[in-house]
Amino acid sequence: MAIQSNPRVIYPTRRPTPQETRKHTAFEDLQALFSGSLFVSICMTMFAQAGLLTGSTAGLAFVLHYATGWSFSLIYFVINIPFYWFAWKYIGREFTLKTFISVALLSLITFIAPRYLHIDYLHPAFAAIAGGFLMGTGVLFLARHKSSLGGATIISLYAQEKWGMKAGNVQMVIDCIVVLLALWIVPFDKVLWSILAAVIMGSFLAINHRPGRYKGH
């Protein structure tokens, strides 16, 4: 006699464990903000040495740095100030404060890093590929701990939360536009490598940063 399964039996889905849903501790937030800023600062150092660009306010800071010779760290810190108002009004105080800390850390590390990190030879292709993944990883660390590096990252995270758009895709479009605007000051081949880095970073975020995938708060 065949054994029939009971169609009324409902198999419950697994509930998240307390470890999966618990709020991040202050130490966890601090290590994420520092490590994320550190990863991005290494990327920025590589880009500066290879003559590449990135998007968002960091890309604008690079353009001004190349055009004027002013400190990238100082330009980047100042140019992000208007975005704090947007973050405070539309995203929240915690996100804004953590973003301010992350931007300050990145500005400080990129100012100090050239004294301790110098690569004798760096091909733009390697800088674009490795830098794209490094930046994507750093931004992912920050996003999962309710922080960002200002500028387009704030806009892309807001678009994801507000309209369900993938933050990585929004970031990729903005970054590519900013990089293309630099054609008047950066050699064409460096712009192409910079676009590759922006695509790699945006794709990495689109794959790994999705609403509901990460349960930490």
UniProtKB/TrEMBL annotation:
<feature type="transmembrane region" description="Helical">
    <location>
        <begin position="191"/>
        <end position="207"/>
    </location>
</feature>
<keyword id="KW-0812">Transmembrane</keyword>
<keyword id="KW-1133">Transmembrane helix</keyword>
<feature type="transmembrane region" description="Helical">
    <location>
        <begin position="163"/>
        <end position="185"/>
    </location>
</feature>
<dbReference type="GO" id="GO:0005886">
    <property type="term" value="C:plasma membrane"/>
</dbReference>
<dbReference type="InterPro" id="IPR051461">
    <property type="entry name" value="UPF0750_membrane"/>
</dbReference>
<feature type="transmembrane region" description="Helical">
    <location>
        <begin position="99"/>
        <end position="117"/>
    </location>
</feature>
<protein>
    <submittedName>
        <fullName>YitT family protein</fullName>
    </submittedName>
</protein>
<keyword id="KW-0472">Membrane</keyword>
<feature type="transmembrane region" description="Helical">
    <location>
        <begin position="64"/>
        <end position="87"/>
    </location>
</feature>
<feature type="transmembrane region" description="Helical">
    <location>
        <begin position="123"/>
        <end position="143"/>
    </location>
</feature>
<keyword id="KW-1003">Cell membrane</keyword>
<dbReference type="Pfam" id="PF02588">
    <property type="entry name" value="YitT_membrane"/>
</dbReference>
<dbReference type="InterPro" id="IPR003740">
    <property type="entry name" value="YitT"/>
</dbReference>
<feature type="transmembrane region" description="Helical">
    <location>
        <begin position="32"/>
        <end position="52"/>
    </location>
</feature>
